[in-house]
Amino acid sequence: NPSPSSQGLNMYTWQEIQRHNQETDQWLVINRKVYDVTGWADRHPGGHQVLNHYAGEDATDVFRAIHPDPDIVRLYLKPLLIGELAPEEPNQERNKNVSEVSGLKSMQRDEDELYFRVSLSFSVVNQPSCLGGPAIA
Ligand code: HEM
């Protein structure tokens, strides 16, 4: 069971967060905060598939790259907040170092059409020189 932090937020481990990786039960981690996007994913302006892709994972890098206006997203994030990463947990789950580009590569495998849409938003980082990097497992 999660224990509350000093700010009254529940604290979660990656082990717990990774369980919420289903369309019917999906959490995201952004900047060490945990968000339950289960009921909200269909209303995400960027579509539910990109959220599904990161369910149970850390989406900090991709989130920052795509949503440049913190004031807009803050309004959306607030009601979805359910807790934060426990202090002893690493920023990313172990054995996973999801960069923006490798995230895009795996999305391309999943969804060609989606890759195209997202890569439009990513035009700054989506340079040919970036695309030869190693794919993630
Ligand atoms: C809880 C997490 C998230 C929240 C609250 C959120 C919120 C938003 C909001 C408010 C917009 C519209 C931006 C605007 O009007 O300027 C947006 C657009 C978008 N989001 Fe997210 N987002 C989240 C996570 C993600 C993730 C993980 C991705 C992964 C790729 C993503 C991809 C996109 C894309 C591609 C758009 C642009 C859609 C378009 O312009 O067609 N979002 N998001």
TrEMBL record:
Q: Name one GO molecular function term.
A: metal ion binding
One Pfam family name is Cyt-b5
Q: Which GO terms describe its biological process?
A: lipid metabolic process
Annotated GO CC locations: membrane
Question: Per its UniProt record, what SMART domains does this chain match?
Answer: Cyt-b5
**Which residue ranges does the record assign to the Cytochrome b5 heme-binding domain?**
9-86
- What species is this protein from? Moschus moschiferus (Siberian musk deer)
| The protein's name | Cytochrome b5 heme-binding domain-containing protein
SUPFAM superfamilies membership = Cytochrome b5-like heme/steroid binding domain
Provide the alphabetized UniProt keywords.
Heme, Iron, Metal-binding
